[in-house]
Amino acid sequence: MQDYARVMASMAPNQARLKQVTEFASRDLTDSTELGATRLGRLVIALQQMRADLEPQTIISQLQAEMPDFLEARPLLVDLLGFVERKAPEADVRTAAEVLGARLKNQRFGV
Predict the structure, then answer these.
(1) Contact 67, 39 (CB under 8 A)
(2) Among 9, 46, 52, 59, which is 20 to 30 Å from 95 by CA?
(3) In angstroms, what CA-CA distances link 6 with 44, 85, 95, 97?
(4) What is the greatest pairwise CA distance in the chain?
């Protein structure tokens, strides 16, 4: 990553920390940014959409459309969402990660 300041909420001495899911702006997550085109960037967008009450299946369909390696990446996405569920300070982000992770984990194909 060229400019890590984009993912930092604070770079002040003794207060340095990464941005929370809720602190990312849409301009931080476009395909032209370092984070936006990554799996983590896609999950941050998905979590923000969950917080905005978009249907989980719609979000999963978007992930599938945007990620050519979705089937291979799905276990990693579930693990990342599990991490967010355990570590996010905001209750609504933890809930969104739990719901989206469960949907991804239990998703059936070709049924």
Answers:
(1) yes
(2) 9
(3) 14, 23, 25, 22
(4) 54
Q: Output the average pLDDT for the chain.
A: 87
Lookup: tokens for 95: 């809930």
Residue 49, classed as helix, strand or coil, is helix
The answer to whether 17 touches 9, Cβ cutoff 8 Å, is yes
pTM of the model as a whole: 0.84
> What b-and-e string marks burial along 6-31, b requiring 16 or more CB atoms within 10 Å of the CB?
bbeeeeeeeeeeebebeebeeebbee
Cβ atoms of residues 82 and 101 within 8 Å: yes
The pair of three-digit structure tokens given for residue 88, joined into one six-digit string: 């996010």
The packing angle between helices 70-87 and 39-51, to 10°, is: 60
Spatial separation of the C-alpha atoms in residues 6 and 18, rounded to whole Å: 9
Report whether 109 contacts 72 (CB < 8 A). Answer: no
